[in-house]
Amino acid sequence: MTQYPDNLKLTASAPCRIDAGGTLDIPLFYYTLRHLKPCTFNIALDMRTYVTLQPYSAEQVKISSKGFNDACFSAKHLPFDHPLGLMFAIVCYYRISGLHIHIESSSPPRSALGGSSTAAVALIAALSHVLNEPLSYDQMAMLAYQIESNVARVSCGIQDQLAAIFGGVNAWHFGGTPAEQTFRQEILCEKNDYATLEQHLLIAYCGVPHESKDINGQWVEQFLKGNTRKEWAQIVYQTQKFINALIHKDWPTAISAIRSEVDIRMQMTPDVFDKAGTSLLQAAIDNQCAARFTGAGGGGCIWAIGDKNQIDTLRDIWLTVLDQYPDAALLQNKIADCGVIIEGDNQ
Q1: Which of 67, 257, 331, 342 has its Cα between 20 and 30 A from that of 32?
Q2: How far apart are CA 41 and CA 48, in angstroms?
Q3: pLDDT tens for each residue of 272-329
Q4: Rg value, the chain, Cα
């Protein structure tokens, strides 16, 4: 086992994301729906998660992260069933000890913006750098995804890791045969168009942490039973429709597609929006915009898309709604122009 260098402090960071078409990045879905060419959409946000490594007691691993009690264990007995088990599993993969990991996120805790996956990506980037074991972006995505999906012991997708690694505005197309690459990136917006897209977006935190496993688990269970195949075929179609509309800056079609995708999911799981989210959703509809939960919903964040003038009006309405809920707030919607990066390497 490698001892962390006693004179090195290093920070890596990665962005969180908003999304549409989620769950289609789970292998169960994209293999069995491969004839429909499933894809997901996400925008990486310049709300970054920072993972800082520094020396610590020999043969020990300590993790400090806001919202969790500090956790310190022997490197030989790191618990994967701990609330920070994903981070411990990544440390175990790299066979390194004697380090203190600080995790600091710019996004609210458990906000359904892909925070755990983002932290995992940043930690993998940092440890790969320390140990001089470079990974391609594709390799990093698969490593982060495989460790997280197995530690979580639930069906997980890979789009959160992809947003964290690549940044930007992307569609992710998933191969449906063993001969195909697992995912293919389609860049939907170049950096010089980010400012324009940002004018058509709003993002809000509802003040209530999400519980994505509950809703995502319902979708998986329904799909396994064969009860919702038609609905998921429609979700594939609406996601493709939205992506094409975004490419052409066809805002009315983009709004229509998101509304339809959300309607289908609400039919399958009516509790996908909490009370605050329901109010934000209705306000968006009333103002000719569309709104969607992030991740698997059930609390966390909501994002809206619409014509610039309608978004400007909706912003004030959303602020009024959010004032009614503790900790709720509008979030900045700046698009991250890069994904995972090494922020500092101080000897």
Answers
A1: 257
A2: 19
A3: 998 999 999 999 999 999 999 998 888 789 999 999 999 999 999 999 999 999 989 9
A4: 20
- pLDDT value at 166 more than 70: yes
Query: Residue for token digits 């915009």?
Result: 289
- In the chain, alpha helices (H): 27-32, 85-94, 115-130, 137-152, 159-166, 194-198, 212-224, 229-247, 251-268, 275-286, 308-322
Q: Residue ranges per domain, the chain?
A: 2-189+336-346, 193-331
Q: 289: left (phi > 0), else alpha (psi -120 to 50), else beta?
A: beta
Closest to 313 in 3D by CA, of 200, 195, 206, 207 = 200
**Among 109, 142, 111, residue whose Cα is nearest residue 124:** 142
Half-sphere exposure of 212 (CA within 13 A, CB side): 21
C-alpha span between 73 and 266 (Å, rounded):
42
Average pLDDT value for residue range 206-215: 70
The two structure tokens encoding residue 219: 């979708």
CA distance 49 to 300: 17
Taking only the tens place, the pLDDT of each residue in 244-268 is 999 999 999 999 999 999 999 999 9
Q: Say yes or no: do domains 2-189+336-346 and 193-331 share a fold.
A: no
According to DSSP, the β-strands at 2-3 and 96-97 are: parallel
Distance CA 154, CA 132 (A): 32
Taking the C-alpha atoms of residue 22 and residue 296, their distance in angstroms, rounded to an integer, is: 7
Percent of the chain with pLDDT over 70: 98
Fold for the domain defined by 193-331: Alpha-Beta Plaits (3.30.70)
Report whether 110 contacts 210 (CB < 8 A): yes
Q: Given a cut of 90, is residue 154 above it in pLDDT?
A: no
Place of tokens 């698969």: 142
307 SS3 class: coil
